[in-house]
User: Which sequence fits this backbone?
């Protein structure tokens, strides 16, 4: 380091320091994957964003001190991989958020329609008309919903494939450029220095402009009306805004001769560095801090169980809470809670001895099919032992009225510990806004 110039010491130190922050905070982010503050933020896509961030910032910071000797081909290839990777990962997160919200909306709608849970007529079973009418309830069929039918196209695995396809296309364009360029050649003599501009960057600029000015705005339109409880939309909008501003400033500073003296002090590419650093703060660091603090758990400690119980027992308040669960992506929990409450109400006069009435067994099987079965429409996020035990009892005909008690207690706890504090926070925000 003693042989480094002042510029090298400055830029290399910043690059190394930033990558340390990037790596450590991303590791902490992934380690908190079970936290609600992290779980719905598309962990894989966020990690891909961090990789793209590292590639671009390291390139732009690392080449400055050795501008005259820096290998030119690295400018093309790292830019062709790093920036598209970051941009497509942001676009993928837009897709995931839109899907989560609209799919939750579809669940809520499906859980509010008036059809039967039990597909059997009173004439063909020992179910009395009164008992049959008592179980008139929301349909749990989502087959007609577009988001449900195409849900495999919104999985992280599928989106990653799209990202890899976009990167493959970008790399193909870079190979084509590499075949015809002399300014950025690798062989027979590696080109170095003075290669920050040129027609060779056209594919990178065009695809970046496509993502920034066409693809992301389309996703923003898709997110119109979406308002999640985690601030993910706000975070993605910040990423998009930073990307647009950085791209415009990069082009302006690089293209205008009048700014040549300015870019000697603050190179055009550093607008992208600043934007990516701020984006990482929004996308990774702040959510990680929330997860480590246990914001929801801390809120629960100051929230009395009695107030929660009072809320779920009040039909009007519970209806507001149920609508909020759409923004919290926890609709299935509220629907399960509601259905078990109705089940208990209508089976309160049954003595749980011997064989249960047919209509009760039908309803238990229906609940299991909707909420407990693997890949069910409303599969709950239960502890594995709880779900396995219910499935085992169903398969072995060990069916009693208490079959869902453990699952109900888990869901009740999840609603109280996580959804309810965010619900109260939303109510407080709405009240504060109303006073303004």
Assistant:
């Amino acid at each position: 380091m003693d042989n480094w110039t002042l510029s090298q010491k400055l830029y290399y130190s910043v690059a190394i320091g930033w990558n340390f922050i990037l790596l450590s905070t991303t590791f902490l982010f992934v380690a908190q994957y079970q936290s609600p503050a992290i779980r719905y933020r598309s962990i894989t896509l966020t990690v891909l964003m961090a990789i793209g961030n590292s590639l671009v910032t390291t390139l732009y910071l690392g080449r400055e001190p050795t501008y005259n000797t820096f290998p030119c081909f690295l400018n093309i290839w790292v830019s062709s991989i790093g920036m598209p990777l970051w941009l497509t990962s942001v676009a993928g997160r837009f897709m995931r958020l839109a899907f989560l919200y609209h799919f939750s909306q579809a669940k809520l709608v499906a859980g509010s329609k008036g059809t039967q849970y039990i597909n059997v007529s009173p004439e063909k079973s020992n179910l009395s008309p009164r008992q049959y009418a008592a179980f008139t309830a929301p349909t749990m069929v989502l087959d007609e919903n577009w988001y449900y039918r195409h849900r495999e196209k919104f999985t992280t695995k599928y989106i990653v494939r799209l990202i890899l396809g976009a990167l493959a296309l970008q790399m193909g364009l870079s190979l084509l450029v590499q075949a015809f360029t002399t300014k950025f050649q690798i062989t027979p003599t590696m080109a170095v220095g003075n290669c920050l501009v040129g027609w060779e960057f056209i594919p990178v600029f065009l695809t970046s402009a496509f993502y920034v000015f066409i693809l992301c705005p389309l996703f923003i339109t898709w997110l119109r009306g979406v308002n999640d409880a985690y601030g993910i939309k706000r975070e993605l909008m910040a990423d998009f805004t930073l990307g647009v501003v950085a791209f415009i400033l990069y082009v302006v500073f690089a293209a205008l001769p009048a700014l040549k003296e300015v870019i000697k002090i603050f190179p055009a590419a550093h607008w992208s560095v600043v934007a990516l650093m701020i984006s990482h703060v929004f996308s990774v660091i702040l959510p990680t801090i929330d997860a480590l603090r246990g914001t929801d758990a801390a809120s629960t400690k100051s929230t009395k169980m009695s107030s929660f119980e009072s809320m779920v027992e009040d039909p009007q308040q519970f209806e507001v809470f149920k609508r909020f669960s759409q923004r919290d992506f926890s609709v299935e929990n509220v629907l399960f809670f509601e259905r078990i409450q109705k089940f208990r109400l209508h089976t309160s006069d049954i003595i749980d001895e011997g064989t249960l009435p047919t209509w009760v067994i039908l309803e238990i099987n229906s609940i299991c099919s909707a909420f407990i079965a693997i890949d069910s429409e409303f599969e709950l996020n239960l502890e594995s032992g709880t779900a396995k035990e219910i499935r085992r009892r169903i398969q072995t005909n060990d069916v009693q009225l208490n079959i869902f008690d453990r699952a109900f207690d888990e869901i009740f706890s999840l609603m109280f510990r996580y959804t309810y504090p965010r619900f109260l926070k939303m109510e407080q925000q709405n009240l504060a806004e109303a006073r303004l």
